[in-house]
# Entry
Amino acid sequence: MDKVSPDCPYPGCFFCVMKEGNPSKRRASILKFFRELPSQDDDGQVLPISGLWNTAMAHPNDPEFIELGIFECMAALIWKGLKNRRWLSHDQNIYIPYYAAHIIGSYTMNMEEFAESAVHAGVIPPLVELLRGRLTWVEQRVAVRALGHLATYPSTFPNVANHGEILELSIQLAMSSLEIVYSHFYQYVDRRLSYHCDLLTRGMGGVEMESRKSEEWASQLQCWSLQLINCFAFKPEFLPAICKSEFLTKLPGMWGGLVNENSPAGIGLLRTICHHKLGRGPVASCPGLIEALCNIARSSDDWQYMAIDCLLWLLQDPSTCHKVIDKAVPALVDLAEITTLGDHKKLGDTIVNVLQECMQSQGTGRNSPSSRTKEQIEELLNSKQRLKWEKNMPKEDLHIKQAAALVVKLEGNSLFSSGNISGAASKYSEALALCPVRSKKERVVLYSNRAQCHLLLQQPLAAISDATHALCLHNPLNRHAKSLWRRAQAYDMLGLAKESLLDAILFINECSQSNDPDLSLRQNKVPDYAERLVKKQMRAAWLFREAAIKHGGVHCEGDAGDMYGQETDDSEWETASESDIGNDGRDEMGDEDDDSEWKNEDERKDKYDKPPMKDIKHGYNVQLAEDEP
# Structure
């Protein structure tokens, strides 16, 4: 007979079994427990399952339970919940399918041999049923997580792929997940299922925490669906099913939000697709997708390099180059000053080489680049040629060029202060033509100042281009506060909320670390103008925004019938699949560290004493980068 604690009323209690001191008896008892649990109907079954869930999360690489049949047990429990609604609605059994699928996912996320055991135990079919939406979105989330882990390994991917519906279900779920969670949970506060609320907050939160966590889980549901699709995208035979225009167009917008910023989400999948020739054709032909890739390529987030890779691969492919070159070149020219980005060494040189090859390979006729594209590439190549010439130029000549550029820049500052914004922009352009290419710090200032002029002249595209140039030249990369702020405003003018939000947040982060009195946060307070923009863009880039527009705002009291009904009512079991949701450098020159010529006493006195100018349209503070990068 199993050893039972004197205070425990349950024979064969799992927690008592775990206290068994004899290892062989303990293993035998655990094996028996896993075999018998699915056939039992006793109360309190959720307690050992939740204990197993905690163990799986804490020790996912421990093989003990794998060897004793935990996967078979969890698969059987999911089937039981799917087939026996009476059992599922009894006691707290409603939690069990969720915990069972989560346990499978935890034990398969690191170890391929565990994944092989799971497949052998038959976990895929019940997980597919959860993925279909046979229960609710909460179970879909853990099912797609588990299937994504199984699809990661070469030995188990074929088993996942043999279930042909998994890919299509994942695609539909990636597109509709935010809408599902919004309309089935977030929107109607009084109709939220209690077990959903408990799982989201672990019983420690109110309505606000429930809402916040549901947004995070919705993002995970979407991002884990994309991760599963990504496993299929590595196989060319699945690309035709993935590369549908309706889906590809939406991928740049699937970004995980601020609640799930560690996921590459849609851009990660696009990079996998563009890595193969079969994927590049549909991407190049998809309306609006190249523009979206350009916006991500210019961004300052962790996934910038992925968009740059996509654009470079599309340009290197003769079958897609002519389709994308006119749209991709402006962004890549802006980024050509990048030296290192993550693991990408000499990225700027790679960009220049690819663009030069494009010019050489593109002939004349209907498919040739536009004259403006040719001009931009020629200007970039000339700039690189200037850099080579400057390496052989006497230092005295370089200093003369620097001094001349400084004089012209100061003229621009004077024009700006007097309100002649167009004249100031022209002077900054003239100064850039004079300034040595290797004088990166000085060029950062010039580009950023000219970006400010473009903002005031209501030229957001030009402002984005110049601000991006400044950010790419700056050391560290993408961390020049004033350029971040200017680009954030320019993105706002274009209605690009996500891009504006990310730059505004980075601007605030840089201000918190800055020694510049014009930028540093006073008393740790975020400037009002930055706070206003962040709040505005957080509303505009809210994950549930589209769903809220379609289904309406949040209600605390429903008046049109329960979405799920009372928990004892059959209407609680409306499934996700039955819902009405449609699928509708530093400088290379050693002497360049001494930039005293740009910071002389006269120049220090030239800082503006008057209040900053205002952008009348947007109401945000605007001022020049002055003389320091």
User: Anything to note?
Assistant: The chain has 32 helices and two strands. The beta strands are 613-614, 621-622. The chain has a mean pLDDT of 86.
